[in-house]
Each structure stands twice: as structure tokens, then as C-alpha cells.
Amino acid sequence: MNIPTAAALGGSSRRRTSRRAALGEGMAATLAASRLLAPSLFVGCSMGVPPRAASVLVGLLNSQTGPLAIGSMSVRDIETHAVERFNAAGGLLGRQLSIRGPDTRSRSELFPRRADELIDAGAVALFGCWSSASRKAVLPVVEGRNALLFYPVQYEGNETSRNVVYGGQVPNQQVLPAIEWLAGDGGGSRRKVFLIGSDYVYPRTTNFLAKKWLAEKGMTIVGEEYFPLDHADFAPVVGRIVESGADSVLNTVNGEGNINLFAALSAAKVDAATVPMVSTSLSEDELRSVPRSQADGHFILSNYFQTIDTPANREWIEGFRDAFGRDRVFGDAMESAWILIHLWKMAVEKAGSFAVDAVRQAFADGLSFAGPGGPVSLDPATQHCTRYFRLGKVRGDRLCDVVLSSETPIIPDPYPQIAFPGWKCDWTRGGIERGPEVTIDG
Amino acid sequence: MSNDFSWVYEMHPWRLALLMVSLFVGFYWVGAIFIRPFLRLLVRRSPGLNDLIGYVLSCFCVFYGLLLGLIAVTAYQNYAEADQNVTREATALSALYEDVSRYPEPFGQDLRWLLRDYTRYVIKYSWPLQRQGIVPQEGTIRAEAFFDRLLDFQPKTPAEEILHAEALRQLNHFLECRRMRLFSVTNGLPASMWYVMFVGAAFNIVLCWMFDTRFMTQLVLGGILAAYLGMMMYLIIDMNQPFRGEVSITPDVFEVLYRRMDDE
Fold first, then answer.
1. B97, B112, B113: which to substitute to probe chain A, counting the most A Cβ within 10 Å?
2. What is the average pLDDT across B209-226?
3. Where are the domains of chain A?
4. Predicted structure pTM score
């Protein structure tokens, strides 16, 4: 029997698709579509691209609450600003930096715990600490775990560590030139000095040194008192300053205590022209918390003042204000922190590695950086920085006029021989050379 | 959706939509080719088969549709609630900023700086972490710093007392809103719901495979149904975590506030 074809019956001449053919065509089309779509479909998701290089963690050890927060929060901000700029410029060694900044609550015992946690989390460097007590508490952690701490605050010296880079002034860069100025014509030939400070290692060691220098200049110490960091009532001690007949005050009070000290001086109508107070642990940034006029005419020792009129300083100030607010005020610890984080960056780039030993090796030839307050070099012998000495006189707007400045940065001497005979440090030639033990009261 | 699938939030919305549609349609088609013949051995061809499957499918679709619809609404509500919490937090922050602007100096300036610092942190650091499904921690430190400084203030006049009490009340409201935002970072549908949804979608598809139709009809009609299921899944995934994915809550309100703080 002949079976008529569809065409012969007048039906459609189109070929019917067999199941096998449809299967084949469907599979081919699906595969082709998958191949075409896959690259764009999976771009940017973790299945389609190699994992991004992990960021590198930088640890910030700053107090954001408590009496030391007043200055250390600004340090945290400038460190954050530096890291944000590094990241915007492509990161460091091709990797972005991330920051972690736990609150150390102005409590020395919390600093080592937080440092430990940051190192555990993989921090390649630690920046911060404020008081010497906090730095000394962190020292065993960074030395025990071979980490690097970059410490931005002026301190008392009498310390060197392979695991710490010190960015602030030591007494031969700060207190010694100030004593010479006080004793000289420029400072009014002062003879009777009252020493007031917070009760911890920095004020006591600094005053231990100051007393030796004051004696050498023929000056008399008419009083010496120390108070806890959170001390608020300074009226009685101001009364004793007045009674002692002091013609100058060397102030090593740290943190918010300064606000209460200036209030007490102002209430007792102590005239800055008659009894000037020279403060070592105060900056324009912290002065913003002192009511206007209370600090007028008193003096601040620092390596940096916001009023330094140089293009580098103006540019730095503008850059930070663009990112953190137009009304921000600047202090020396902020400038030191900025310098330290840049020195670390230079060392990492030179070493081509984030490893502590490699970075430290990069310090060996010395590093220099043009900071907002002038050029700074890292002294490889002591891992301290060369710093300018500057004396600022507080004016009505709570900024300072620089009334005295060293011509060049002063080489740091953590162990002035007048107080620590026989002690030396040169990390490029064997490290610390110990002299007789020195006992500091308190 | 667990962190194992967090890569889906890194995808551009249309890519994610395309991926979901492709997965569902691909699954349908592959199943139609390889699994359907076995199903047809189990469910023998009979005159009323398609009607029977149709009844079962419509009954199933009512329940599944309801489930899917309710889940989509829940996901949208979560999203909208998180969005509202963000707006409330920014509004409370703004009111607090106004309050502390009236404090005597230097307190006023300190408190304003601390709030500005908080706002900056939220924009630059909290949000990127939230987008990864991580609850940011350091905002708490900033909020505590503000709280501590506010408590340092000792009012000296009745006006200052009223202002201080109002600032503390506003601070509590702000902290409450902030906590709500942080809670919603990890908000999402529980795993069991995802399982039910995907198993339900699979049942839907299996029922469609059972229809006795021409092969091309099966591919086209089933493909359309699968594509729509994929779209629904995309919608739920995209709204499931309000801070994740391309279509997510942005820090716009905080940015506006920060600009205003900075301009003052």
C-alpha cells in the first residue's frame, strides 16, 4: 500500500522534528548559551575570579574613652587618614590595608591585652599607646611576639627596644632646651621652679632628669607633686604653688587633668607673665578643651604646632580637614603618628615585605621623611626620631605662637649621661650598653 | 541564606536574576531530557492522566504560591523595616547633634566631633562590613565615647539641666535605633524556609515533567514556568538581607547628615 506523503495530501511540506534531533539541537543550544553567558554571569563573584588578595591588618592602640581619650582619638584619626590615603593610592605592596582600633579605655592593663588580640588577628604593625605606662605594659607583648610598635608621643627616655619605634621627643629634645630657655634672658631668668605631674613613669622620670639639669643651671625646686591621671581638684596644689614663691611651673600632667589644672590656675588668678607654666604633655589639639583665656600666655613644649607656616604643614592640615572636618585642630602626637606611619610604609616598601625582621632591617640605613613640621630622620642606632625643639606661647584662640625653635632637628638621646651614666644604645653595633642601675623615686 | 552562598550578593542584580532563571530553566530542560522518560515509565499513559496531574498541580500551586507569596512579603517587610530603622537612626543622630550644639564650649565642640566621627565611621566602615553580612563592632566604641563625654557634663543652670535631660533621652532613642540596625544586618530567612522553597520548586517541576505532551511543548511551557520560579527566587534572595547585594539599603541618609555636620 502506498502511503501518500503529507505534501501529496496538500499538507505542510515542513519536516517534522524527530525527538532525537530536538534533543541534540537543544543540548547544543544550551551548551552554546552557557558558554556565551558564563563569563559575564560569573564576573565579580567568588566562583568566577581568583580570590582577591587579602588586605593587611594594621592595629591601632588608642584610648577612645577615659582621661587619655582627649589626645589619642585625634591620633587614631590621623592614622586612619594615612591608611585611607595609602589605600586610595593603591595600597602597600599591592595590598589594601585594613585597620582595627579597639578601645583601650585609658587603662594601662588593657593595652597589652588589646595588643595581643591585634597580633593574634594578624596585625603586621601596631601604632599607638599614649602614656608611658601603657607603652611599658605593651613592651613585653611586642618583644615576646616579635611585633613592631610605633609610639607617637613624647616620653621620658631611659628605654630602647628593637620592637618599638619612638616618634615623639625625648627630654634632650624637649625639657633640656626649655630649662636653658627658662634660666636665660629669653625665659625671664627664672630661678624657682615648681614641678607638677601625673603620677606615673613619664612625669617622674622626666622630673628626675629635669632636677639634674635645673641644679646644673643653679635653679631651685620649690615643690614637686604628683596626682592620679583622673585627678580633678587642683586648687590646693595651685595654692601651694603660690605659697612657694615659684616663678615658673614645669607641668608634666597628662590628659584631661590639664583642663582642671588650667581652671585652678585661672581661678587663683595666677598670672602667666609672673608665673608661667611650661607644659610638656599638652598640644593645641588638647587645648581646645580648655576654656578660652585660661591658658593664655602659658607655654607648651612640642616638636610641632598647628601655626607653623609652611606649605607642607598647610597641605597636611587641609588634607586632614577635607576628610575629617574643617574645624579639626592639630597636635604634636598627631604629627608624630603621621610621620611614623609613613616611615613604616617606606620601610615596608624598601624591604618588599611586611615581615617584622625585614622591616626592621630596612631601618638600618636610616629613613627620612618630610613631615608637616619639618624633616625627620629615623636614627637607626636608637630607633628614635630626630625632632625639632619648639616652644609655643598660648594665645587667645588657644593656638600657639612659636617663640623659640631649634635651627635643625635634634638627635635623640634616650640615655642622657647626666642621669644615666654608662647607658648607651646602638642597634647597628650590638644594642644596649648597660651602665649602673639608676633608681628613680616613685 | 547562609554565608556559604554569600557570593550571590556580590553579583549584579541582572546577573543574579539571569543565573536563577538559567538554573531553573536548565534544571527543567535537563530533567525533561533525562528524567522525564523514567517518570513516564512510572506514570503510565492513560486518557485522564493530564487532567489528574493538572488537578494535583493546581492544588499544589495554591499552597506553594501562598508560601512563596508570604515569604516574598516577609522578605520585603524585613527590608522595609531595616530601611526605616536606618532612617530613624539618622534622624535621632541629627536631633542629638542639634541638642549638643547648644552645649557650652568646649563640651559642645567635643560632642559634635564625636557624633561626626560616629557618622563618618558608619558611612566609611560600617556599611562595607554590613554589605558583607558582618556586624560592625567599632561603632559601639564611638557611641560609648560619646556617651562617656556626655556624662562628663555637669549642668549649672536649669536650662542646661533641661537640655542635658533631653540629650540623654535622645541618646537612648538613638542607641535603640542603632541596635535595631545592627540586628537587621544578619536578618534573613531561616535555612528551613529555603529548603521548603527549593523542594517545593522541585516538586512543581517534577509534576510538570509528568504531563503527556509533545516534547517541544514540554520544553517551552515548562521552561516558562521554571523561568518564573527562578525570578521569584531571585526576588526573595535579593531582598532577604537588606544590607547585602546591589539592591540594598544605602547610607544616603547618613551621608546627607555628615555633609551638614561638616558644613557647620
1. B113
2. 90
3. 56-169+309-388
4. 0.82
